[in-house]
C-alpha cells in the first residue's frame, strides 16, 4: 500500500520555491540553465512520471545551514517496508538522512545517504549488520548522478525472515511519522528538487487485522479481529482478558480469550498473579459482578445470599436472599463470610487484592 498518498496523510516542507527564477549548472560544467519555479507540496507524492512534476526547495543560503526538511504524518502507526525517492533535474542532495518517529516528537535515524558518511554523519559507509545491531541506521554512499534512491528497512537484517516474531524488528519498521532531512546540495546547485516520493507499508495492526478503515472522524484505524481493540489492535476488547494480549503471528493468531463470569458480568481485568497460579491457563478476574454474586468468576453468592439449587450458576437467580428462602426456596449458604468463600469447595482460602483494591480469591483444595 502506498502510504505517501491518501486523505489521512499530511505532508509538510520547511522550504518551497514560489515564483522565482532558479539557475543551475548543466552537467556540472557545460553552462547554466535557468527556469521559473512554482512548485507545490503535492508534487512530492503525485507520482506523475510522464508530467514530471517536481517539488523544488527555495534558493538555499550561500552561507550557513542548508538543511531542508520534508515531514510525512500518517495519522497512525504503520509498518514501513519500502521507500523510494526520485530526484528531479539532477538536483539530488550531497547528503540526506531519513528519520522516523512513533509520536511525532522524538526522532531517530532510519537511514543515512552521503558522499562522505564519516565526515557528514560520523557513520561508517556500508557497515556489517548483525543481530546485535540490526535496528541501527546504516549509511550508503550517494552517487553524483544517481537519479533515485531506494530503502528497504528490513533488507540485510538477519532476522528479516522471521520479522513477525521479532519484537525489535517490529519496532524498527513501526513509524507514525517520517522525516527526510536534505542536508547539503550537490556541487553547482543552490536548491533541492524531488519528483516523487513513494512510501510503501501497511497499517500496524499487530497481526490482528488485514486492513485499515476510517473512523467517523476520518482517521485510520485497524479493522480488528481476534477479539482485540484499539487503533492498532494493541489490546484485548472489554471482557476478553483471560490471558495477556499478544501480537498475532503466522503460526498463532494469539486471539484474546473471554473471561468466564458465568453471565453475571461482561467486565473483567487481567491479573498476572492469577495467571501464574493457574499455570498460565486463566488470568482474568471479573469485575462489577451482578445478581448478588462475587468472586473471580462471579461464581459465589455474596454475604447474605444463598445458592439456589433450582438454578444453574449462570442464571440471574442463581443467588437468592432470605425473602426467597422464606417463600420456600431452599438454598445453600456458600458465602463463607465476607471473603466470599470458595463456592463450596471445602478448602482453604487466600485473600489477595489487586492494584485497584479488587479482592480476588485463590482456593486450595
Describe this protein's structure.
With 365 residues, the chain is mainly beta. It folds into two domains: 10-203, Jelly Rolls, CATH 2.60.120.260; 267-364, Tie2 ligand-binding domain fold. The chain is 6% helix and 34% strand. It has helices spanning 117-121, 167-172, 272-277, 322-326, and strands spanning 10-13, 18-25, 32-38, 55-56, 68-87, 93-101, 108-114, 139-141, 148-151, 174-185, 193-203, 212-214, 220-222, 228-229, 235-236, 267-270, 284-287, 293-294, 300-301, 306-307, 319-320, 348-353, 359-364. Strands 1, 4, 5, 6, 7, 8, 9, 10 and 11 form a nine-stranded mixed beta sheet that branches. The protein has a two-stranded antiparallel sheet with strand order 2-3. A hairpin with a 6-residue loop joins strand 2 and strand 3. It starts with 9 loop residues before the first strand and ends with a strand. The model is unreliable at 334-351 and 353-365 (pLDDT under 50). This is DgyrCDS11456. Pfam families: EGF_LMN_ATRN, Laminin_N. Keywords: Disulfide bond, Glycoprotein, Laminin EGF-like domain, Repeat, Signal. Residues 1-202 form the Laminin N-terminal domain.
